[in-house]
Amino acid sequence: MTRTWVLPMLFGSCGLAVATGLTLTGKPGAATALLLVFVLLAGVHSPLVFPGSIGALEAQRRSAVDGRPIVFWRPGCKYCLRLRIRLGRSARRLHWVDIWRDPTGAAAVRAANGGNETVPTVVVAGQPYINPAPEWVRAQRYPSA
Length: 145
Hints:
The protein is built from six helices and four strands; from the N terminus they run αααβαβαββα. It folds into two domains: 3-44; 56-139, Glutaredoxin (3-Layer(aba) Sandwich). The protein has helices at residues 6-24, 28-44, 56-66, 78-87, 103-112, 134-139; strands at residues 70-73, 95-98, 121-124, 127-130. Helices cover 50% and strands 11% of the residues. The mean pLDDT is 86. A four-stranded mixed beta sheet has the order 2-1-3-4. By secondary structure, it is an alpha+beta fold. The chain crosses the membrane at residues 29-50. Keywords: Membrane, Transmembrane, Transmembrane helix. This is Glutaredoxin domain-containing protein.
């Protein structure tokens, strides 16, 4: 199991343990509700929601070749999740860099944000844009995959 699945598996295991405890004490409705919450948390933090991350240097290299934007993000960021969900299928055409897994990406975000790790930071043609609207990102002209 890779590190990216540790948090989702932890959420799933905790949800199952809590639901089992509530079911044994005679509260199946509460058990079902809490299990759904934990499953939702596991899904949101899983690698299934975000396209596979690559390193910042690789993303910059690929972006220079194909012209696609780079999105610097981190797990648990509600604004990154909003961007990902609102982009829909077109999100797979972007280069995603997880700043918690890539120190070079974190440094690039700090450089663009005056020392802060504000995400999502989207780089289009070498120009960083901090927490842009999903509609704006979708409107950028980038080649289809």
